[in-house]
Specification:
It is a single chain. The strands form 2 sheets. Strands 1, 2, 3, 4, 5, 6, 8, 9, 10, 11, 13 and 14 form a 12-stranded mixed β-sheet that branches. The chain has a two-stranded parallel sheet with strand order 7-12. Helix content is 34%, strand content 22%. It is built from 10 helices and 14 strands. Helix 2 packs across helix 3 and helix 6 packs across helix 7. This is Stage V sporulation protein AD. InterPro entries: SpoVAD (IPR010894), SpoVAD_sf (IPR038369), Thiolase-like (IPR016039).
Length: 334
């Protein structure tokens, strides 16, 4: 097996293929820009359950089962599940994984969890596993009351805030050379903190991290934005995307004409989400629906997906800490 490395933080992947993806999206996401691309959309975000937490867990179960079924596999064919969510102890993903009876690695990197899962899953494929499910998601109502305020309180939203996406996306990575696309490289993020204190303004907190990882990838690989059909970020939102453009411009990099932020584009302006969507579901939903469909059609040949995460908790916020952030990136080719 080749042991070639890029410089610093970027690793090449060999024979890591994306077999398929599956998405479960909430009712507000169904009415958004990618609504027609999702596999399953809900009419009620309780998903027939008594609590929102149980609904989120059920969404994870459906996404995992759905991607296994789309790949024409059985649960016994899956070597491992890697993924996570935004709740304490990543209970939604972990409780869903218990029904599959296979190896499980629970991950948490906030809204960068999906890209982290692709990196970990890709490494597992590279070391001999055949089929690995990578999954991540979030739910507006569960995240809102864990990280912000009780839903019943009716707190006014800040103009810089984002709307946590309700959805789960699952990807089946395989060593079989028959996938929709393949993961060819990954850049692991490092924790970056520019001292942002406003928990409503996560885009501003995450943009420096996104800039750091994107620049590291281009430097390590010797590539440039012109080499890619698109650069997707997770959930910087509209304001965070503008900050990213400014930071990259200071490094002599222009991505404006090919950048798509999954969160900023998930909803229409008329849905009044201010800066767009946030949450671990953003990159998972868009990658496993819109992105993979464009690989199938031949529109995309080579893209970057950079998952962005704000690593704060209610406790750190209450204690006056700033918001550190991280961004993980994968290169995907046809």
């Amino acid at each position: 097996m080749s042991t070639n490395y890029y410089k610093k933080r970027t690793l090449p992947f060999f024979d890591v293929y994306v077999d398929d993806g599956y998405t479960v999206a909430g009712p507000k996401e169904k009415d958004g820009k990618y609504g027609d691309c999702f596999d399953l959309t809900l009419t009620d975000d309780t998903f027939g359950e008594k609590t929102f937490e149980h609904a989120e867990r059920k969404m994870f179960s459906h996404a995992i089962d759905g991607v296994i079924s789309k790949a024409n596999l059985l649960t016994k064919d899956v070597d491992a599940i890697v993924g996570g969510d935004l709740l304490n102890q990543i209970v939604s993903c972990s409780f869903a994984a218990r029904a599959v009876h296979t190896a499980y690695l629970g991950l948490y990197n906030a809204c960068a969890t999906f890209c982290e899962a692709l990196i970990v899953g890709g490494a597992m494929i590279g070391r001999g596993m055949e089929n690995v499910v990578c999954v991540a998601g979030s739910h507006f109502s569960t995240a809102e009351r864990q990280y912000r305020y009780p839903l019943e309180l009716g707190v006014l939203r800040s103009p810089v805030t984002q709307w946590t996406a309700t959805g789960v996306g699952a990807t089946l990575l395989t060593s079989r050379k028959e996938g929709v696309a393949k993961i060819t490289a990954a850049t692991t993020g490092r924790v970056v903190d520019f001292g942002i204190m406003d928990t409503n303004n996560m885009g501003a907190a995450m943009a420096p991290s996104a800039c750091d990882t994107i620049c590291a990838f281009f430097e390590d690989t010797g590539s440039s934005p012109d080499d890619f059909d698109a650069l997707f970020t997770g959930d910087l939102g509209k304001l965070g995307s503008e900050i990213l453009y400014d930071l990259l411009a200071q490094r002599g990099i222009d991505v404006c004409d090919r950048h798509v932020d999954c969160g900023a584009t998930l909803f229409f302006d008329s849905q009044k989400t201010y800066q767009g969507a946030s949450g671990a579901a953003c990159s998972a939903l868009v990658f496993n629906s819109y992105v993979l469909s464009n690989f199938r059609s031949g529109k995309f040949k080579r893209i970057l997906l950079a998952g962005t995460g704000a690593l704060m908790s209610p406790t750190t916020s209450f204690q006056g800490d700033s918001i550190p952030a991280i961004t993980h990136l994968v290169e995907v080719r046809a």
